[in-house]
Amino acid sequence: MRRSKFPVSLLWIFMAGLVMVVTGCGGGAGNSVTPTAEGDERAPAFTLNDLEGNPVSLSDSDGQIRIVDFWATWCAPCREEVPMFKELHAEYGGRGVKIISISMDGAENLDAVKEFVAEYDIPYTNLMDDEEVSQQYRAAGLPATYVVDGDGAIVKNYVGAKPKRIMVELLDGLLADEAGEAGS
């Protein structure tokens, strides 16, 4: 009996990778929390177009806590996070927290992104990535979320879907810190 030259183990590795790509969005899917050197890394400045072609800069919201979220319409965990971000927007938008959503679908898919935003009734800022910004942020897996304080420092970054409680704890802590600094 003749053995195949293609090892079965390679087939299994290929199949596992395919499953990860189909079910997730690459990178560190799941609830991984990857902190940066807190307060040491500055958020890269950017100006991107919103879905109507208007330029929006990160610096437009200096002084506010920003949640910068890289996502794509084809990413299942990204879709799962939309209700959480809508709730965070409703709960924290009036308290100095701004959500900036950056689609990595590519300019050629602008209509699909517009349909997605309309279908999910997304009320927060939505921008189109130019491929440079996601590279500057090193957004390797999706969703990739960066929490930026009012001074422009990346406080935390997350790759993969995250539970709302993690975001609430972080935002409450940042807002308490800012209130403490303002009262000093």
TrEMBL record:
Tell me the ranges covered by the Thioredoxin domain, including all copies. 37-176
Record-linked SUPFAM superfamilies: Thioredoxin-like
Q: Which PROSITE patterns match?
A: PROKAR_LIPOPROTEIN, THIOREDOXIN_1, THIOREDOXIN_2
Signal peptide extent? none
The GO terms describing molecular function are: antioxidant activity; oxidoreductase activity
Q: Name one GO biological process term.
A: cytochrome complex assembly
What compartments host this protein?
Cell envelope
One GO cellular component term? cell envelope
Q: Which InterPro entries match?
A: AhpC/TSA, Thioredoxin-like_sf, Thioredoxin_CS, Thioredoxin_domain, Thioredoxin_ResA/DsbE_sf
Q: Which UniProt keywords apply?
A: Cytochrome c-type biogenesis, Disulfide bond, Redox-active center
Q: How is this protein named in the record?
A: TlpA family protein disulfide reductase
